[in-house]
Amino acid sequence: MRRHIRNQAVICVAVILGGAAGCSSAAPPPEQATAASAPDLSEGATAAPQPFEGLLSTAQDNQKALHDAEEQAVAQCMKAQGFRYTPQEFEPSRQGDPGPRPGDVAGARTRGYGIAESKERGEKAVARNNPEANPDLAKLGPAERQAFTAALLGPPPSGPNDPSRATIAVPGGASISVNTNGCASKARTAVYGDDIRWQQLVGSVQQLQGEVYDQLVSDPSYVSAVAQWRSCMRGKGFNYERPTAAREVLTMQLNSGEIALSSLKSTEIQVATADAECFQAGGMANLTAPLVAKYEQKVADANQGVIVEFRELQEKSIARARSLLRTGSG
């Protein structure tokens, strides 16, 4: 059922440093290595950091508290409207994991880009924000199913100016429409204080990540490093314009049926390993870390209001979630 915006923010820039617009979480940038340092292709090799990952990272116990409190609030709201809703369990393996990041050689050797395993997890998971996949609908007739969906997500819009609906812009020019009368939105408000404002803040931080990315890929030293990476990949028999471009290609091939899931894993491991090794061999990870730190600071200095509000609301939401779980209310 749920559309967990917090985790979407964490995964949405998963491949940003490789040139694909996406989102992720990670640790603070490592110190820049000296030019004399040999590229480390061992399991301890440094992978590229992601913009604002410290801001977006959330400890697993806090993730669980936010998730459980939201699900508890949904169940109580649905019960008040005469429906049974079984809260989804928190599953750490599906929370904010975009797969190995650029330059993660060890991860690439075992998981590729994480495309196949993500697809396999998705097929086993209940689709989020999809009432048709909710197990509590199994015993309901057509009319009851429609009522269940309306209670959960809010009724269909009454017109173009329906006051119960809010449209939220997200990075890339798209937008999402949220009905604040649905139990899903009410539950997020119970946890985050204001569902719409929280989603707006998440979208704003994603936009800031994009700004860091735009400045990074235009930096002359980064452009030069990508050229070295491209040459290295060609030497291994792969022709891609930028790091992690193969992730996009393989994902599109899987989605279009051009490549079967059963044969994808071995292919992506081969390509991803070459990708990560070339990322390390050309020194891109060591180069990228200080560049990300530089441009992240520049963007942060110009957007302190958003960052402070996001951090404060996140901290308050975690405290509120734990309180809701202690009292059993929503």
Explain this structure to me?
This protein has 330 residues and is mainly alpha-helical. It is 56% helix and 3% strand. It has a two-stranded antiparallel ribbon. A hairpin with a 5-residue loop joins β1 (165-169) and β2 (175-179). α8 crosses α13. It is globular, with a radius of gyration of 22 Å. It starts with a helix and ends with a helix.
List keywords for this structure.
13 helices; 330 residues; single chain; mainly alpha
Quantity of strands, as a count: 2
Termini gap: 17 Å
User: How does the major sheet shape up?
Assistant: 2 strands, antiparallel
Low-confidence stretches: 1-45
* Rg calc: 22 Å
Mean pLDDT: 79
Count, helices = 13
The share of residues in extended strands comes to under 5%
What is the succession of H and E elements?
HHHHHHEEHHHHHHH
What class would the helix/strand composition place it in? Answer: mainly alpha
Q: What's the shape?
A: globular
Strand ordering within the main sheet: 1-2
Helix content: 55-70%
How does the SSE layout of this entry go?
Elements (H helix, E strand, L loop, with lengths): L4 H7 L41 H4 L3 H21 L24 H7 L3 H10 L17 H12 L11 E5 L5 E5 L3 H10 L2 H24 L1 H16 L9 H12 L4 H21 L2 H18 L2 H24 L3
Antiparallel strand pairs: 1-2
Helix pairs in contact: 3-7, 3-13, 4-11, 5-11, 8-12, 8-13, 9-11, 9-12, 10-11
